[in-house]
Design a protein that fits this description.
With 613 residues, the protein is mostly helical. The protein is 52% helix and 8% strand. Among the domains are: 176 residues, no CATH class; 126 residues.
């Protein structure tokens, strides 16, 4: 018959049930083995167990469970949290185990008592067990290795219930604790938090606090690095670059002048050799005289151009003036005998006026024709000049030697580089003159308030003695490391020495990753809250204890010293003996940079287009 391993509580309850009596009397029931220290992690409990009786019937035995089945809404992590309880330390002696007995043995009784107590308030119960140092946290997939590393004392393994705190899923909390962070230091602290002897709610809250501080410190670190880079640029890199640019500009200017001088010599030599060839194409000194009518031009080419309205109005007005003048003269002659003469005179004057108008119209038309013809000739000559100029340029280009072409290319390249250098110098010099209005204090003041170097140190007293300053990270790390279980075979003194070393390693790694340690009065914005600022990380929450618990959980460390006795030291305040009084520093980091509105005119230095001195 195959063996089914069950936990002691289930086995005890089954032995006292009616079904167990029926199966036991048959002599063919399954054999149940009670787990002790030598056993390993129990197999998952099945909801029912079937067994055949002598008459051939199958009896279904329901297995009681201490907790309701886990929720299937969220997938469980690969490893579930458990609590390993040392019954020997809890009850003061190792319980006896009587196999295959009808009486309930001590191991089952003790397990039942512990389970029933934890069912009432799981988080409070395991906190009590952790504080009494009779239990330790472990993971289900590592339970075998943990049990094998323990001594011969009797232990029981209790898995977490599916829900704690009323309605909080254990799978969700454990998944959040196992979620990797984007920061190496937080991942290392998360590993320590998961293995500590604290409840899951406590672990979740403290890991959230560490993650929040890390995110804000990363943002502040990026800003401080930008300020440091800006300060280095202004004080070191820009003056050095300006000096080098001026030197480079002088070198390029000398090279450009030398190339121009060589180009002029080569060009003069080439012009002297090709003067006769290019002289016939030079129209600069030629005068163009235009005749009234050129050969081949006809009056019909411009005859179609209409007269302007002003010209026609002038002709009509002159004609009407002549008529009106004649009529006024007619009124002067009132003699009836001279009517015939007056009519003749009127006809004669009209004929003369008509002749004058015709002559004037002809002259105006002739003038317009001449102007049009002159415009045509000018356009023709202009095209001729452009064509001759183009031919001259082509002839000059063909007559250029390779040496002259290389000199022209070199001069152009040097002038382009000089233009770029002048533009850079102009911008850099303008920036330097504008920043002279800021009397050097803004960036230094910001960096001084949010120190990047020397964090965690303050100067106490007039002697200039540097004493380490406690930060919010020190308190969090002390709480996390204080919850680490004592490894089997390790003395307390060796354990706390290792804890101190881990504390320093975490601080060093944090400072290397974020540039500084967060201040003690950190308020979530990367700035010091001060005495009345109401800042600080609220580390309270479910799992931290009662309402009257302090924000930071103090860890008491007992150390054996020479001469006997023990000294209670605070693992929170300092890992060394004694207490250190530290003075909290007020911080208010302003990262708003303002550019001066009025630029200083006429700063020192050489600027292209500017002045010297």
């Amino acid at each position: 018959m195959p063996k089914i391993q069950l936990d002691p509580v289930t086995a005890a309850r089954m032995r006292s049930s009616k079904e167990w009596s029926e199966v036991n009397e048959s002599g063919k029931g399954s054999e149940y083995v009670v787990l002790n220290n030598a056993s390993t992690n129990p197999a998952p409990l099945a909801p029912v167990v079937t067994s055949k009786q002598p008459n051939g019937k199958e009896v279904v035995v329901a297995l009681p469970q201490s907790f309701p089945p886990p929720s299937t809404s969220a997938p469980a992590p690969s490893s579930r949290p458990c609590v390993l309880v040392n019954l020997t330390s809890l009850f003061g002696f190792a319980p006896s185990v009587i196999k295959n007995s009808v009486y309930t043995n001590q191991l089952e009784t003790f397990r039942s008592q512990v389970t029933q107590t934890l069912e009432e308030d799981w988080e409070f119960g395991i906190e009590e067990l952790f504080e009494l140092e009779v239990a330790r946290h472990c993971e289900q997939n590592l339970a075998d290795a943990t049990i094998n590393s323990m001594t011969s004392e009797c232990h029981i393994l209790l898995p977490y219930p599916p829900v704690i705190g009323g309605s909080i899923s254990v799978d969700e909390i454990w998944s959040e604790l196992c979620q990797p962070s984007s920061f190496n230091t937080v991942n290392r602290l998360g590993f320590m938090v998961r293995g500590g002897n604290k409840g899951l709610l406590w672990k979740r809250e403290i890991l959230r606090a560490v993650e929040t501080i890390a995110e804000k410190e990363w943002e502040n670190t990026a800003k401080r690095r930008q300020l440091l880079a800006l300060k280095k640029w202004r004080q070191e890199e820009r003056p050095e670059k300006l000096e080098k640019l001026y030197e480079v500009r002088n070198v390029f200017e000398k090279r450009r002048d030398a190339a121009k001088s060589k180009l002029n010599k080569v060009r003069e030599k080439r012009i002297a050799n090709h003067t006769e060839d290019l002289q016939g194409l030079d129209l600069a000194e030629e005068d163009f005289a235009f005749k009234k009518y050129q050969v081949g031009e006809d009056e019909d080419e411009v005859e179609g151009k209409p007269m302007s309205r002003a010209d026609s109005d002038g002709d009509n007005s002159s004609a009407s003036g002549s008529d009106s003048g004649g009529e006024s003269a007619d009124y002067e002659c009132d003699d009836e005998d001279g009517k015939g003469k007056r009519n003749e005179e009127r006809m004669r004057r009209r004929a003369e006026a008509s002749k004058l108008r015709e002559e004037k119209r002809r002259k105006k038309k002739q003038m317009q024709l001449e102007m049009k013809m002159q415009e045509i000739r000018v356009n023709a000559e202009r095209g001729k000049v452009e064509e001759m100029k183009k031919k001259r340029e082509e002839a000059e280009e063909k007559s250029k030697t390779e040496e002259e072409k290389l000199c022209e290319v070199l001069v152009k390249q040097l002038e382009d580089r000089l233009g770029k250098i002048d533009e850079i110098l102009e911008n850099l010099q303008e920036e330097e003159w504008e920043e002279e209005e800021d009397e050097g204090g803004l960036i230094d003041e910001i960096l001084r308030k949010g120190e990047v170097e020397g964090d965690g140190e303050v100067i106490v007293g007039g002697g200039g003695v540097k004493v380490e300053q406690m930060t919010i990270l020190d308190k969090l790390v002390a709480s996390i490391l204080g919850a680490q279980p004592l490894q089997p075979g390790t003395s307390k003194e060796a354990h706390w020495e290792k804890v101190r070393a881990l504390h320093e390693e975490v601080k060093t790694e944090w400072k290397a990753e974020f540039g500084r340690l967060p201040p003690d009065n950190w308020n979530g914005e990367g700035e010091g809250g001060g005495e009345g600022g109401g800042g600080g990380v609220d580390l309270r929450g479910d799992g931290w204890g009662g309402d009257d618990d302090d924000v930071v959980v103090e860890v008491e460390v007992e150390k054996e010293i020479a001469g006997g006795g023990s000294v209670e030291g605070s693992g929170l305040d300092c890992w060394e003996d004694g207490e250190v009084e530290v003075e909290e520093e007020k911080e208010e980091e302003e990262l708003i940079l303002s550019t001066p509105n009025v630029a200083k005119v006429g700063g020192k230095g050489l600027r292209p287009g500017g002045r010297i001195g």
